[in-house]
Amino acid sequence: MNIEINNINDALNKYNNNLLNPELDNYLISEIIKSSKNINELSIKSNLGKDEQDLLINAIHNNYNLKFKDLKLIDKYDDYLRLILLLLGVFLISISQETSSFISEISLIAGWVFIWEMLYDILFKQINRKRKAVIYRRLSKCKVNFIK
Predict the structure, then answer these.
(1) How high is the pLDDT of residue 133?
(2) How buried is residue 136: exposed, middle or buried, by Cβ count under 10 Å (0-12/13-18/19+)?
(3) Which of 32, 68, 83, 136 is the most exposed place for a label (fewest CB within 10 A)?
């Protein structure tokens, strides 16, 4: 992937030089998703000095390493949440079988909603998070080349 940077301030977050500018971050992620290529190397066309190049390389690696760790943490706690939803759903469905009234219908519906939410998270949200985590992990370790 080729990127052109004219000024180091265009690439770094204006509040934290250890992170990328959100515009550059969004651009990188959207281009990687569009191209659906495995990214192992970034080519940056710029006239930056050696210190600025090192700062940019560290910012790229730090930015995506933090994002990768955040997604891993979310996945860890989502596993617990999914287990709780499944158990609660099964519990509510079993209660609905034992009672016969309006409460039975409510607990049956609520039980299936909890189970559906758990399945929806696994089938749609978790897959998307894992895909982004792979991209973030690769960007956190990618080689950065500077071209003049």
Answers:
(1) 92
(2) buried
(3) 83
- In terms of C-beta density within 10 A (0-12 exposed, 13-18 middle, 19 or more buried), how is residue 118 classed? buried
pLDDT recorded at residue 60: 92
For tokens 């617990």, name the residue: 80
Give residue for tokens 């930056």: 48
Q: Residues near 81 by Cβ (< 8 Å), separated by ≥ 6? A: 121
User: What tokens were used for 68?
Assistant: 């990768």
- Mean pLDDT per 10-residue interval, the chain, length 148 residues: 83 86 89 79 87 91 93 89 92 88 90 92 89 91 88
Q: How far apart are CA 24 and CA 3, in angstroms?
A: 9
